[in-house]
Structure prediction request, 484 residues.
Amino acid sequence: MTPGTIYGVGLGPGDPELMSVRADRLVRHAAHVAYFRKAGRPGRARTIVEGMLRPDVHEIAMEYPVTTEVALDDPAYAASLSTFYAEVTAQLRDLALRGEDVVVLCEGDPFFYGSFMHLHTRLSDLVPVKVVPAITGMSAAWTATGIPMTWGDDVLTVLLGTMPTAELARHMANADAIIVMKVGRNLPKVREALATAQRLDRAWLVECATMAEERVMPMAEVGDRAVPYFSIVVVHGQGRRP
Amino acid sequence: MTPGTIYGVGLGPGDPELMSVRADRLVRHAAHVAYFRKAGRPGRARTIVEGMLRPDVHEIAMEYPVTTEVALDDPAYAASLSTFYAEVTAQLRDLALRGEDVVVLCEGDPFFYGSFMHLHTRLSDLVPVKVVPAITGMSAAWTATGIPMTWGDDVLTVLLGTMPTAELARHMANADAIIVMKVGRNLPKVREALATAQRLDRAWLVECATMAEERVMPMAEVGDRAVPYFSIVVVHGQGRRP
Prediction:
C-alpha cells in the first residue's frame, strides 16, 4: 500500500482569510486533521479553521501533558513532552501507513518556532511529510502597526521573551529592527531590556494580530496589565530610503 | 466622492497557491493593478499573477529608472528613485481620489524589505491604504530545506548580502539561526563571512524557493557560479527540543 502523507499546514496568524490558497484547500478537503492544544481548551489552530472542516472529518486533538506548570529547564518537562511526541507520532504514522493523508493544523509558520517541528523530526524518516509555509505572526504584527518594518540594509533580529534580560538587551542593541515573540508574562523583562538597549521609545506591543481582539499600542502606553502569551513586540528599522 | 483604497497586496514567495485567500480574491477582482519592474522585463510580481487578472484590467507598470547601474550610496541613485516614487505616488493617488481601488502587487511581504514601503510612506496621509501581509521568501526558503528553522529560544537574525563582510560575520557569530537575503553577486562575500563566523558548514543556499527553478543545496556545494539576486542563505537554529 502507498503510504499517505502527513501535511504540516501553516494557518498563519489567525484570520482565516490569511491562510494560503493551498492551506485553505488542504484544510477543507481533509479526512483527518490533527492539532495541538492544552487539555480543556479548544486550541488556537483548531479555532482558526472553525466552520471549514468536512462534516465527516476525523479530528485528532493532541493534548499537551504539560504547558507552563513545569519549568522549561526541568528534566521532567522534556521527558514528559518526549513521551507525548512519541505517542502522537505513532498515531499519525499508523494512519499514514494505512494510506491515509493527515493534515496537521499549525498556527503561524510550521518551521518557525512551531510545535509541528517535533513531529517532523520524528516522522520524516518513516512516512512522507510535506510542509506548507504560512504568514508568520510577526508579519501580521508589523503589518498591524501600519509602519514598514525593514528598509535597505536593516538587520532584523527575532528574540523570545523567555530569554534572560541581559541577553535580550545585548541582542536588541545590535539590531536595527527587533521582534520579540512570546511576550506574555515576560513583559516586565522585555520592557527592561528595551530600556537598557535604548529602544523602548520606539517599541510597539501587538496583541492578537489579525484577530477580533487585535490591539496595537506604543509600549510606553501598555502599563503593567497582563498581556496574552502570543503578544509580539515590534521595533521598526530606520534604514536607508530614497 | 469617497476615495478608493490603495491595497499593498503581498503575493508571497512565488507559487500562486501560496498567496493568501485574501490576496487571491483582491487580485482576481481588481480593476486596476500596479507593479514595479525593471524596464524591458515582465516583472516578478506580475509574473506570479499571470492568468489570474480580469480580462479588462487596467495595468500600471511602474518601471524603475535605475536598478543596479548606479551604486546604492551614490546620491544620484536616491534622487532618481525619489523622483520616480513621487511620480507613481501621484498616479495612484489620482486614481484613488477618483474613487478607484488599486491593487499594488508586491512580491514577498510588503513591509519586509519591500518596494511598496516607498509608496506607503508617501500615500498613507493622502488616501486610504491597506496592506495584506504574505508569506516571506525566507519562510519559503527554510521550508524548502526540509529542516525546521528555529527551536526554543533560538535567536534568528536576518541579514542582507549587500552588507560589508565584517558586519555580516559579526552578526552571524551572534545569532543562532541566520537568514541572508539578496545574496546574488554578493555570494563570495557571504561565504567569507560564514566561514569567519564558523557557520559555513551548516549553511544552505536556496534559489527561487517554491518556483519551478527551485534549487536547494549546502553552501559547500555551490561553487563559484552566478546565483539569482533573490537567492537566500539559510543557517538553521539548533536550540532546545525534547
Notes: Chain A has two domains: 6-132, 137-235.
